[in-house]
Amino acid sequence: MSDNDNVLADGGSDKYMVPALERGLRLLQEFGRGNATLGAPELARRLQLPRATVFRMLNTLESMGFLQRAEGGNDYRLGLSVLRLGFEFLSSMDLTELGQPVIARLCEAIRFPCNIVVRDGRYIVYVAKVTPPTPLTSSVRVGTRLPAHATLLGRILLADLSLPELRALYPEEHLEGHSPNTPQTVLELFNLVQSDRERGHVAGAGFYESSISTIAAPVRDHSGRVVAALGVTLASAQIDAERQTELVPSVCAAADELSELLNYRPQSGAQVLSITSRRAGGGHA
């Protein structure tokens, strides 16, 4: 085994780190929804670096298009090169490439926004979305991140985790609340997730936003792991419980179609259980 192989096997080594590159990436990570624009003094304070160093980093990143000057002159915001990298990453994923036509057909059939979401640690990330030409709009877009524990889509994506794994992911005693429906403890979250897993889908209103309902089902890959959630978003005021129940089979069928494209082949027993669960209905969060 070569030295490079040893480094990879050990998960990396500090001696192979490039300090300037690390600082530049850390600087970019400071920008986000809550910090759309930042100036050099604030970045120097956050990164605990000399202002002169930060000014050079900003100048380099601006010249490469990763940052651009905000209106007013002295502050910066993320540039188009960051956006380009993000979309190239998403478009390179088999999941989004295969899933986009699936949710496009589903959206055309049911006339509601359809999404594909993956999990990144404690967050869900929207990686594909199709919206019908209707008055209903959604604030989420590709790249939007939301807390996994506080969303129905997140509960789908946590389905494969055991209770010890969930506790490792959420070591705090009380989970952060985002609505009256947010589970308060890891055990409460685990019980909800297990019910969702047995049912084969989730369907509920007001779990994260009071005016929004969600129907979602798991997408699995060739190993059987849940790798994504395929969901439909709808306004609670525009749909009744009967119509919501009618939509569940369509969402589950689309998720199954995408799973099959990812080479998932359910065992016969699991398939029978899934079909039985869906006929039984239910699942309001």
Automatic annotation (TrEMBL):
Signal peptide: none
Keywords: DNA-binding, Transcription, Transcription regulation
A Pfam family per the record: IclR_C
Residues annotated as domain HTH iclR-type: 18-80
Domain named IclR-ED: residues: 81-264
SMART domains assigned to the protein according to its UniProt record, in alphabetical order: HTH_ICLR
InterPro entries found in the cross-reference section: GAF-like_dom_sf, HTH_MetabolicPath_Reg, Tscrpt_reg_IclR_C, Tscrpt_reg_IclR_N, WH-like_DNA-bd_sf, WH_DNA-bd_sf
Alphabetical list of SUPFAM superfamilies matching this protein: GAF domain-like, Winged helix' DNA-binding domain
Gene3D superfamilies membership: 3.30.450.40, Winged helix-like DNA-binding domain superfamily/Winged helix DNA-binding domain
Protein name: IclR family transcriptional regulator
